[in-house]
Fold each of these.
Amino acid sequence: MAETAYLLLRHRDIPNLKKMDVYRANGGFEAFQKALMTMQPGEVVAAVKNSGLRGRGGAGFPTGVKWSFLPNNIFPHYVAANADESEPGTFKDREILENNPYQFLEGLMLTSYAVQANDAYIYLRGEFWQIAKQIDACIASLESAGLLGDSILGSSYRLRIHTHLGAGAYICGEETALLESIEGKLGQPRLRPPFPAVAGLYNKPTVINNVETLTNVPLIITHGAQWYRSFGTEKSPGVKIFSLSGNVNRPGNYELPLGTTFRELIYTHGGGITDGRKVKAILPAGASSSILQGTDAVLDTPMDYESVAAIGSALGSASIIVVDESTNIAHLVHNTVHFFKHESCGKCTPCREGTYWMAHLLDHIIEGKAHQEDIDLLNEVASQIQGKCLCALGEFSIMAVLSGIKQYRSDFETLVAKEG
Amino acid sequence: MVNLTIDGKLVTVKEGTLVVDAARQIGVDIPVFCYHPKMEPVGMCRMCLVDIGRPMIDRTTGQPVREVDGSPRIQFMPKLETACTTPVSEGMVVVTESAKIKASRKEVLEFILTSHPLDCPICDKGGECPLQNLTMAYGPGKSRFLFDDKMHNQKHVPLGDLILLDRERCIQCGRCVRFQDTVVDDPVISFYMRGRALEIVTHSEPGFDSIFSGNTTDICPVGALTTIDFHFKARPWELKSVASICTHCPVGCNLALNVRREAAVGGKVVVKRVMPRQNESVNEIWICDKGRFAHHYEASPARLNQPLLRKQGKHIPVSWDEALDFAAEKIKHAGNRLLTLAGGRLSNEDFYNLHRLTTARHGKPTLATYMAGGDLTGKLGLTPGSNLADLGKGSAILVAACDLHEEAPIWWLRVKQAAQRGATLVVANPRSTRLDLYASHRLMYAYGSESEAILSLLPVASGSAAAKSLAEAENLVIFFGSEGLGLEGSARLARACAELLIQTGHTGKPNNGLVGVWHSPNLQGAWDIGFRPNPSLVEDIRSLAGEGAAYIVAADPAGDDPELADALKQAGTVIVQDLFYTETARMADLVLPAAAFTERDGTYTSGERRVQRFYPAVTPLTGPLPDFAIAAKIAARLGVNLEAQFAPLIMLKSIANDIPDYAGISYPRLAEVKPQYPILGRMDVYYGGTSYDNQHGLGITLPNAAMRRETLDLPPMIPTSQQHLGDVFLAPITRLYDQGITLQPSHLLDARKTQPVLGIHPRAAAALALSEGERVAIEQTGRRFEAAIHLDNTIPYETGRVIYLTLPRSCRLPANQPGWVTLNKITNQLPVEG
């Protein structure tokens, strides 16, 4: 695979990369061919394990390790690509799918080969229906080219890829809800254990990877794990697409090595803050983040999984939402909570009832109808959701609330009704 | 076995046990809403959060880390865990009582209550509501949620014609959805929408189309699902629970009749609702909707309330003395020309007295039934120690000539579950039925060749896969019914089934034997006591002309069959003893009002030959007497001294003395209970639902000749006549909701009651140029009737072969006799006047 300035957003260097002939002319499917012809599935798993690639969907779990959990005495295995990109502020997978679809598909094919799956599913959020059409066309051309189907490239390996559109639910990006949805059921998370690696899609061992994660795989197979480790940090190797949004001059996707600082992203790449104002707060993982204050210490923190966690938040899917001084944090929290209330699946009590309650409290605060003690109540309601939910959605719903009240209490206080 | 500590108490439980169930075994209550011990856990409600620690393992050595005192160091998880989804593990330490857990429970309850309407004062569930109880125990006294922020949803939404849903009260635990989906496989309700808008909807037409729907109201942990039958009828704390047995089919489901003294009917105690009573060997904690909703007949205003004597052609109310004198006089003069025809609704005590009276007069104790084989089930019935719940991998079940889903729903459920656990299920029926879905082997035969079909399963070298699997099974239970069969056919079928059990060595041991799918609750008891069906009943009744007497108890031969009605006209005296003024009663010289099962006590013997007791529940009507008492009073006038006129207790003693299989049966033994799992029915109700604890006995399964290794002395096998005597064969079938007298007064089931239609395969109908709804005339020996055509592709049809018609029994058309009929199109139909 030819080296360009970009590893994932290679279409920015190579025009028409979304066309199969262009992609092939630029080294496309060489990795897949290499794996199929010269590598055992286990070697592909080992290569990805050694590369240190971590899941880009948010949790940052080591991808190769995840693959190695699949038991080799239960078949069939399935692979599901998570293209349900729904985190507010995240728009990286969309760019890949729209402009560099074959690199993603090649990654999916490599993953399927690595875990010996003969069927792979791409779960796309419902709003991506046009992308789904495009992906379907890509799959069709791969089939006519003999890269998908039975005995691929003359080998005994067969693979089919299917697309599946969601119906507009954020929760279906949660991997077990995603599986339920593919199975035609109501999109609600499953109980774990059993984990999908053991009992996933149709109760069979299943790997679920994010689009961006998969798009990394061809590079690792072509260039090797050591090469891949030359990017990023020791524990967070590789590059990451940072979706930058909020009060910045140049919002957009930025592919940078993991470990790049917030300051570099916001000021060097993002062109600084609108009207030269100061950074007030950063949500590093979209609506699911604890809010980081725009201090120098935070701005100089490298954006890798460990460093962001160390300052009390999470890198997640790296949707960096920047908020400047002109914004009242209570309004921001009002927005995130309404999002979670709207997206709560309703399966577990604390999330279903808690997000509804928090949304009402924040409505009262925003409307100036609340009192001081309502801020405390909001804080308590958020605290009593914490640690009780069935899946991460409920736990994420309180991040902005707790960190917002803790760090920006005065923003809330200016909105509540004056006593007397 | 796994050892763990819960709140400092050591407990040893089976591997795989969930923490919540382990705790319950030592009396530690972990509150739950969504968890139900009969279903897989889902961990949704988060009420059961507890602190769980496990022994810490040193990663380098693999050895447990020890404290200074040598005890294993316990590592607790940072978050609380759901006790309902966590299986026990060795050395686990569970803490259910701590400030943290107290707070957690209070917080979860506060969340649940934010959306709850708190309308307990007008809620049917108030008083037996898990949410109410758990809130009292663990909840906050006061909500911090603004009342005006509550989401308002629809109240009393009819999900169907039996079940109401209150969407405000629903806490989205999904017990009902999971019950319908995983327990009874009728996934007709489900969740719709998401978040706070998540709600239960039905998507069947008609709504909530399931014969088990009532159970969801028992397991609903709030007042979201209630039955229309009980809606606003009483408060649970006003109700007393009386142990009873269902009278609608041979399963013998254990019931709790909920009764209350009712001002509106003059202070009488009446049944307000019917609930299941836990018996893990019979119905577990479930009952079907017929058992739950078809109880109204016992309190019907149409009940007979005084003896009626025919004087100058008219039925005139008379005193019991006059009535009994008349009966005794007529029976006396009848001599040995007394025919006592009794139906399977009677208790063992009734049958016993009627049998004693009849045989003392050298009369003929005759069973009113179209199904034979009770002699064989008596010899080869399910052996004590059997439980359908024990059948699984390695066991086999054969279901022959019946549609269990319609005829005995709880057996259907338990057979289905056995098949799902891995038991081999062979379904032999001419028509496809709901059980086919779970069958390992499906044996479709033509109506009329039932016994040949069963004999084809005998273990021979060239046997089919089905035959092999039956022969090799460790256990074999055979259910046989009467689909398309009369007395002769069912006798042959039972004999063939007995042969199969004997030849495959499946007799006389637990979890093996023959079960009759009777059409009444106590036909097995009747057979055991000595009543027998009579293949020449018409002739025998005709021969009662002159001085002869027909004493007809709990049976309506004239209503069932015009030929019998005709014969009864020739009988010298007809005495009818019943609950209702039946067709036969209308023809009678004397009508005697009998007490309903709710007004007295007695015992029934189920199809599994389990003897179970029912208790008096309501204030009896003043007029009627129990059937056994009427028989005893008549007998007394004839100088036959039957010990008991009023106390079934003494009769049960006599039964135990006289009938060898019943030896040792007594009220104390019938009342024995032993611990059952899951542990249900405590005051808390949160765990298993409103199912009632069984404190009144689990019943006793009768021994049989096979287990005593006695010579079985079976009747010879008679080959079926394969001769075709026509082109059209009429096969009677049994439907759950028929139009029999015990169902008629339950009007809330009206929409579900089976119509008297002739089922025919659409292609067969096309061949005869018949269309849906078209009326045709059927002629069968001695009878002619008209009925509408109903197209049904479950009915067999092969082009150019016999045309099969099905006709539901007890639906106001004579449908008890299978056979060759003539089908005539009704031409020149006169225009309807009016």
Note: The CA atoms of residues 146 and 152 of chain A lie 6 Å apart.
Amino acid sequence: MTAPGCDRIALADLTDYAAGDLSGAEAAAIEEHLFSCADCAGRAAELDALVRAIPPAVRSADVGGFVTDDVLNQLARDGVHVRTFVLSPGAVVPCAVWDDDELMALRLRANFGGASEVTMSQRVAGKEVVRSTGQVTANSGEVIYTVPAAWVRELPVVNVEVLLSTREEGEERTLGSYTLVHGGALQR
Amino acid sequence: MPDTHATIEAVSDEALARRIASGPAGSTDVEESELYRRFAPRVRFYGRRHLRSEAGADDLAQEVLLLTIERLRAGEVQKLEQIGSFILGTSRMMCHSERQLARRREALVARFVDTSVEIAPPSLSALDSPRVAACLRGLAERERLVLLLTYYAEREAPRIAEDLNLSPGAVRVIRHRAIARLRDCVMGGRS
């Protein structure tokens, strides 16, 4: 057993270990230490608990934000009801959430050029309610933004204006604007 | 009357193993439970890394500790001062023979300790989805996405890097920062 207060293994190393991103030799060295050190093992168990809490939180459809198809596919495999809207620049699309929808996914298409980051702004009745900057997925021609359906149900019948932009050489460039004509919450 | 729980927690790993090895059958339930409490989380952490399955990791933790207790009782663990190494070696061996797990389970569970004891660390035992979801929402978009891709979609750094036009090293740095922030938020109750 090592001395109390041992911090030989940093949280970053444990994180890489848990993610499977260490070489065999690096992973083996961490394992040897964890099985002989109660302090480091305790921190590993804390990290393990934290990591294990992520999937249920995501499945609860209460997180939202930018995602990729890998995340959406996993949500589908987990049985989460996702209502998807595919929007090209200038689109005006009727939109509603049904009572069994859990998550709304907006596939916002645009010509991203060389942009690596985009900012999405949502305005409801002229007021900005969401502003978020995310990463552009390589070669996809779209970004995917998710919103918990529970939040959408709270909206009245209203138009939601979505603006996608990027910054180039200090200037903001609009990539696309989209309009969701929100018809309220529907029941089957 | 002595506080058995407090006392047993102060016992070294080696002494714990020695008590189980030398005690008559049925007289070391407290020591066996303590050994399980100490090492099952480590085996599970190991198992999640190597088996990529939560259920598989849970099974591995149960099987490894039950087998360890069996070997201790049978006097088959030679170096009791290295009980941690023995448990790690057993974990590695059983990971490679996963198919043996199911066959041994029924026989061993009937014979030894109750392995359903709570093994989550006390500081994080109260994690709930709304709290974790709120903390995930509080992260920067890129940090949250890297965590979701790593721990929900189970993608490794090179694949995430390719999808997000980042280097694998950058993905790891983002993940380190994101985990630290998520942990601080969950532990501190801030979102």
Note: Chain B touches chain A through 61 residues (CB under 8 Å).
Amino acid sequence: MMRPAILDDPKRELWLAWYATVGFYSLYTVVFFIITRTQPPGKPWYDPSQVVGWFAGRHDGLLIGFALIFVLGGLSATSLALITYSIRRMSVSRAFAYSYLILYAVAAVPGFLFICTAMTVGAMRPERSPALLQWLYDLAFLSFSGTMGVFLIGSLIWMTAILLDKNHVFPKWFGYLNLCNALTEVVVAPSWIFHEGALAWNGAIAWWINVVVFALYTGAFIYLLRSMILREDFGTGPLPGLDSKVWRTIVPVEATV
Amino acid sequence: MTRTTGERIIFWSLPAVAVVWIAAFFLFPGFVPPMSPKASPAQVAAFYADHTSRVRYSMILLNWFCVALIPILMLIVERMRLMAHRTPILRYCVIGVAAATPIAFLTATIFWLLAAFRPYRAPELTQLYNDLAWITFTCGVPFLVALCLFLAVAIYLDQQDTPVFPRWVGHCNLLIAIALVPAGFAGLTLSGAFAWNGFLSFWVKNLAIAAWLVVMAVVLGQAYARPRSAAEVTA
Amino acid sequence: MTTTQEPLVVVREQGTRHIPGQPDMWVFVFFESLVFTAYFCVYLYSRTQHERAFLHGQSQLLAWLGVLDTVVLLTSSWTMARCVQHARAGRYAPARRDAFLTAGLGFVFLVLKIVEWVRLIHLGHTFTSSEFFQYYFFLTAIHCVHLLIGFVVLGVLVWKLSASQEIVETCATYWHTVDFFWVLIFALLYVVR
């Protein structure tokens, strides 16, 4: 049997990480939107008895869906490993790469650990007092949407690295898109204040518009990471081949001959 | 040349820290035997009222020392530098999960300590803290599972004449990852093998973690004991 | 370790349309415009649901202050454009002056905004007091965040003034966008009744 080419491909580690990233985000989407139905989020204005009903309607989904995240959530590290690698490939200080790595490693805790724990504890004892269930409900949703700092600073770090980078690892428009993503963290801040309306944790602005921006941002970086892996030459200079058909991004360089 | 000064100090801290972890494990009155999820609020409250001191001291110990795992994980990351990988991606994956791994344990200790702080509060509140602690402790395995998977992949891809870790360590990590999976489902049932006091979610999971620590300590020690090859010196 | 330098081709032929600044910044402008449009749609929808309350809220605003804000920002866009012109012609000292003037006008706008917010808060209208003011403070605040970013962008402009005309134009594009968003917010909050 011929030895499959992928085993000798020096980029196989990168591809493994990339496919794991795609797998993780797919799982995440399916679990949150379909299995547990915690996104779109429950309504913040529910009184305790309505919260009991919310949990009751999702009992099995919550327990099974979040169990899957409890098992596989650690795969999120592949995406941040790839992004750290992309920043390391840039012509900027390694401080940017390591900052990003730590910020997003820590982000896993509010990013899914709290909501998984709070929702599991909520669903496992339906006879728990409604006031306590509402406490868990608040903990779950606010820790999930409302912990903004890691993503805000992380996006700004990545943005700065991209805009300073002379190695053309990512197109500049993606640097600016990081700013858009960072701003969603500013926009979600009022969710800690309002129980209803466009700025509540399920609101038209703080959730719906924000999620669209975040989804586009995530889709963009997954696509761009793939493009980076394809172009990777394992050097330290400019990464070749970033020419989008829509606009030029290649910097003119003196011809050597 | 990669500096390794001080790594042995971190390495030899592992047995010391392990002693603390084991001591805390047995000192906590709710591990041997593990508390039942089916206990009523009154029973849970009684547990904390009767065993307040032991809960507090064991969890303070664990709170201090659970993050001591991180330097040890970093030793593994440094050994991974010598693997025949083309990129540091897998090292970054390990660092990525290393930060969050002890947080699950840390958070669980906080909830246990809170439960014991005012043992005479309303039993339902104590039960809530107890549930939060147990679910975090039992189900908080994602980072460990991922860690084992990343290490296994790293070892399998380390195809050179003298791999940093022998191949069986990769198999071990895979097995341990599988052994940790049932614990993720502990929220689904209050009794049986999957419950947080059950055979799979408690005994298999915690013994798997202990086994991982033993295996990695042994192979790390072997890696340090191996005479430094020319390749390592110039790494 | 040297890498062979292959000549990278400049893909900008004669006769193609010249976009000022990085095209990437225009992508950002387009995207943010979509986002702001979405915010405006949410506001307008909410307004149709509570027309009376919103009208009452709007009557608390000082229209002349809104006009003054708009004039200040439009002037800053003019000084920004002049700066770009000077820079293009190589006149860096006047360009730098215009850049600082732009920043100064931006600062004036910020002060006016804060004065207005303080006044409204003293009158009892806060972020949480009514639905109209929830939107008012949200839209003006998120615009101010963009303005603050604009100061950083102006800093980059001054830093790269003699080095890269493209970056100068990119920064100018951002500033004009901030002005553009304000005009829309002004129209929505102050004028449309």
Note: Residues 94-124 of chain A form the longest helix (31 residues).
Amino acid sequence: MSLGPPQPEAASGDTNGELSAALQVASVSHSYGKRKALDNVSFRVRPASFCVLLGLNGAGKTTLFSLVTRLYAAQQGTLRICGFDVNRTPGEALRRLGVVFQARTLDLDLTVLQNLSYHAALHGMTAQETKLHTAAVLDQVSMADRANDKARTLSGGQMRRVEIARALLHRPRMLLLDEPTVGLDVKARADILKHVRSLVTRTSIGVLWATHLIDEIQPGDDAVLLHEGRILDQGQASEIATRADVPDIGSAFKKLTGIAGEEASWQRP
Amino acid sequence: MATAIIVEPKGQGFGFLQYARCFNGIVWREALRFWHQRERFVSALVRPLVWLFIFAAGFRSVLGVSIIPPYDTYVLYDVYITPGLIAMIELFSGMQSSLSMVYDREMGNMRSLLVSPFPRWFLLTSKLVAGTAVSVVQVYAFLAVAYFWEIEPPSPWGYLTVLPALIVAGLMLGALGMLLSSLIKQLENFAGVMNFVIFPMFFASSALYPLWRVKEGSPWLAFFCELNPFTHAVELIRFAFYEQINVLSLGVVLGAGAVFLTAAIVAYDPSRGMLKGREGS
């Protein structure tokens, strides 16, 4: 059994490049009652790319994640993971998706190993696959020595690392992380960001990293600027800044959203 | 304008063994959770024992039970209410499961389950079966203690013949709990379930008193009790404990269970159910 990087979906029949996208969000709108949380949102995440979804709290990031993970269905538009429509073929789409939610989702009464085994079962993995992949992913996040410890004994940063290991256990081709560094100290934040970036270079996985922290974005990253449910701009972070005629992505976001001065204090942790 | 044609790639699907592994994982996790929450087991056992040792003992001399099926002789009140207490264990277990689903949803654990690639109906049914298995273990622990209170079936076979009734009744009550969990938005609202579901279901049933006695007091209440699926869960267990089948009760429990489970699956469906468009759910 190979534990190498996951292979991208074969792109046969791909007339528009949709299948070559790890994640394709097309014209998605969603409302909670009268409040529009997402308004005609479209973007794509390429395989082997690190894409940042940048937005303030309440911009619609978590709603978008809930729709991609099919916690509920989009009222308008389509979402595809490696070409599979999340609503029409949810099983095929979700088996290619790894998710780290904003809220902690580990079972605190279970050990790290038990949490990972439960996730493996939820993906129908064999005992042998589970054993091999568990050892590999825990090693990747440097948590192998804590495998038999209960989740409640871990620090916030360690829990996040275990959640990332869990999200990678079934070898997805697309990884979603919803504000994964919230509540972590500077070192833990840097470690997790570095690890996820290294995943992109080591494997062909596509990563969508939702954040409201400007310093987590590098000029070469793909970025999607989301504000009040609408996309303000998207593309390479440096290009967005150039288009906005400002020196960096943080300034571009401030300019595009109209946030200035003290109100922009959100951008630094 | 050119129309984009997207040919979806061919999926792998899931085989029987993968479904079986997923099911095992859910049952295993429920068993581990039960093991880690041993105080839950103790409290589930103490509640019916208090009713049996104190309430039933107190009312033993006040309430007489005439000869009604499945009993072929007069029985003590303690013997009469035992099937009701068994059903109570399953009712509370179903509601406990519902409570934990609401808690898991609030805490985020539920998301781990719901983003599994397996169909949602399968995930929910597996969770229901796992919860029922836990409630059946609780019932047998109660029966083991009750044995020393001289409460036992006419023959040891009764312990075996009651098992299918426990499973069917447990699935029905667990499905009800699952349906309620989809309707409850926050954990704080769960107290309402106690007042509006658990207590009316339990007291407006044949668990504590035979329906003919209720009819003497209020025909309308007796009519309501007869409609209550919990009454039929109690009667199904009562007859099965005496190695008999109450066909009407079996039909009602199976029917109610199917309705509750279907409604719960619909409620948890992302495009059709109660979770659709619920902010923060």
Note: Residues 43 and 49 of chain B are 10 Å apart (CA to CA).
